Amino acid sequence: MRKGQYRFVAGFLVVPVALYMVFVIWPYIQTFGYSLTDWKGQSQEFSFVGLDNYTTLFKDDVFMGAIWHNILFLIFIPAITILLALFFAFMLNAGGRGRAGGVAGVAGSGFYKIVYFFPQVLSLAILAVLFGAVYRSDSGGMLNGVLIKLGLVDEGTPVEWLNEPNMVLWALMAVVVWHGVGFYLVLFSAAMQSIPRDIYEAALIDGASRAHTFFRITLPLLWDSVQTAWVYLGIAAMDMFILVTTMTSGDYGGGPDHHSEVMATVMMRNFLLYGKSGYACAMGVIMLLLTLIVSVVTLRATRRERIEF
Amino acid sequence: MSAPIKESAPPAPPAVRKAPARPGDERSEGVVLNVFSHGFLALWALLIVLPLLWLVLSSFKTDAQIGGSAFGWPENWDLGVFSRAWDKGIGDYFVNTVIVLIFSVPLTMLFGSMAAYVLARYRFWGNRFLYYFFVAGAMFPVFLALVPLFFMVKRLDMLNTYQGLILVYVAYSMPFTVFFMHAFFRTLPTAVFEAAILDGASHSRAFFQVMLPMAKPGLLSVGIFNTLGQWNQFILPTVLMQPQSGDDPERYVLTQGLIQLQQQQGYASDLPVLFAGVTIAMIPMLVVYLSFQRQVQAGLTSATLK
Q1: Which residues cross the membrane (chain A) (predicted)?
Q2: B226 to chain A, minimum CA–CA distance in Å?
Q3: What domain count does chain A have?
Q4: Model confidence at A266, in pLDDT bands (50, 70, 90)?
Q5: More exposed terminus of chain A, fewer Cβ within 10 Å: N or C?
Q6: Options 1.10.3720.10, 1.10.760.10, 1.10.569.10, 1.40.20.10; which CATH number does B80-302 get?
Q7: What is the CATH number of the domain that holds A98?
């Protein structure tokens, strides 16, 4: 019996563990090794160069600029997305008519949730095509078309959303926010609904206004979800590969003139275009380190006393 | 936890205010706020829906119309653009994606639940370690693995093959699948399992015929999550599914193919076809989403609750 059980356990584990080892864990480990070599990827010949790749990397202006752009994304994407999602979630769950004492949701909140969440199921490739058309730099683009109609933009000089060095990062951020708000709204909304109603009622009897209720009750009780959202959006901000590579100009994106470059696009260009495998691996390691730092710092910086209810 | 907030809450006593309240103030605040919140909510809903509708509409226009003005209705509602898009590659990309997912999603669910089940319900040496070993994979960005992964798949002679992509998808879906199904199998009652064993079922039979059917709700959520994730995957196919030589056929998946079509626009502009392609790619997602709306939202948001 006991022996049979071990055979069963091993039998069930062997395929998943083997697949996972070969395609996930082993490549992760190898990356660290390759990052210390000058491997070009074409042959199996390479030599150990120590930390040379890393020192080159820190002198690589393109990569350093890319890190800076990732940091900008890291600051703005979570802040804007979470604020909007919290605002809408509060509106949906507590923005209803006053007669219900400020704790009722608006009519049709189910419908809003369905609509808001929909972008989340679309692939980023679809978003890239969609927003490529929205940001088109002539009157055929949705944004320019609207602005020209409103008379805010001259037809002869439409806005080059994705080709203007000062504009491109914001244009990309808008896409991420558009994509993410619905998801975090559903997340926060579920958390809000698990807050007992008596708490709100008690607050109302004590004369709390809506703003008070939000900042003194809802937000503290939602803090766990907000924290999770912050970590996830932070990790997404460190990536950004698909949107940048597909929406901006240049090989693997990053244009105009490296103004929208992120770490992932520099890495993919070095790997797939220049064939600098070892160098690309070093970038992968830096991406991992920065991502881990972001998660740890976010978790620590947003730590609050956990409130049980 | 007590009752959740429902939309139809009973009336609560009016708030006591410091400012002298005029009669009717209470109600008008409610109305203003209601208009205000509905206004913002409706505005964002429009911001979501309008670009999507506009894109679908644009696929019926001609190239000249698309370039000319963002407004204006298509002149004729010709569905031919969809078949043109299908022939121009979208059909192949669609079929490729479906072929990969037909194998990768069931295999992910099978292997993921097998591992999760054993880890959740059997005590053996190294159990905890293996669990964290699986779950830790979700922590790392996929970029960390890309370069060696490419050469690993190359060494296995599986670049630009369905089986290569399928295996890689299965492997990269393991962390979330194991994590979620592990939690799910823990909640299942043991009594049914013990009864099955007493009746002489083997361990694997108890798993396939008793435990797995009981885990259906979990399997559905995780299955939808994996389907969406693998359908939308872009980075892995970009690296692994490039033709390896002149006579190696293209086996692009849909996401990759759409981007390919978009990047060809510079040479031979046929935007209606591109937009029709996007519409074709959106339809399955829309159908899945609308029919499993609750599970999709639950499945995707529960992924963040690690």
Answers
A1: 7-29, 67-93, 114-135, 167-187, 229-248, 277-299
A2: 12
A3: 1
A4: very high
A5: N
A6: 1.10.3720.10
A7: 1.10.3720.10
